[in-house]
Amino acid sequence: MLIALGDAITHQETVPVPGGAQVERSLPIAVYLTGLPDFEDRAGAQKGAPFARRFKTTVLTAIDDTDIETALREFVIPGREVPDGEGGLGRVRMEVGAAAAVVDLCRGEPFLFQSAGERAWYTGTGTTITREDVISGWRGARREAAAHVERILGRLPQRERAFLQAMAEISPEEREPTRIAGEVGYSEASEAGPTSRRLDTVRGIIDRGRLYTFRHRAIEAYPTSDWPAVG
Fold it and tell me: Has residue 230 been placed in a domain?
């Protein structure tokens, strides 16, 4: 199937244009493959399949907290319009504190953002979603949140998991490449280079710089705090 799709998106047809000229045009086809984080590596580098290079890989990263706050603003002001059960329309609003709780709990993860919002929506019975509704709903979703992070980590090779664990055990202001490499057991930082590059460019989990940081904040929070538990 992937070979057929790869051939289709590179196929061109000769068509006439005004003035009698002939031009090559591609077919109006767009192909999106989602939820396949290892597709490019397995189909290309490991199997030597040339069609893998025809696809542009985009690694989705965490959503910025400001963007989540913007997305929830409609619920805070003016509220979401819903049927009132009597043939009319009412509005369901969200407290500012409730929106802040959703932002804090989901850690920028789109899946967890949806889960936290859904649980909060169905937990409350009034016209205002409170912080207590968000916290109560999240208690039912925290195992799902933990399983989500564990699935991501479970797909990683042991070397990459060890690198992330070492990062998590070091305070953020001390996460220098040399320090992390030493914690993993390498004698030089360069030995950890391929692993850190994959975690950055392929996995989208960390950002490399003078200090390494977690781009995937749920993966950072899981071993370094009580998250996803709430008080």
Answer: no
Number of domains in the chain: 3
Q: Is residue 122 situated within a structural domain?
A: yes
CB 211 within 8 A of CB 176: yes
The radius of gyration computed from the CA coordinates of the chain, to the nearest angstrom, equals 23
Q: What is the number of helices (H) and of strands (E) in the chain? A: 11, 7
Provide the CA 119 distance to its chain's centre, in angstroms: 19
- CB count, 10 Å around CB of 112? 24
Q: Is 22 inside any structural domain?
A: yes
Residue type at position 211: L
Note whether 156 and 177 are same-domain residues. yes
**Strand, coil or helix: what is 13?**
strand
Q: What domain range includes position 218?
A: 148-224
Q: Which of 107, 99, 103 is nearest to 73 (CA)?
A: 99
In a domain, 59, yes or no: no
Q: What is the pLDDT of residues 154-182, one digit of tens each?
A: 989 999 999 999 999 999 999 999 999 99
- pTM (2 d.p.): 0.74
Nearest to 40 by CA among 84, 89, 8, 6: 6
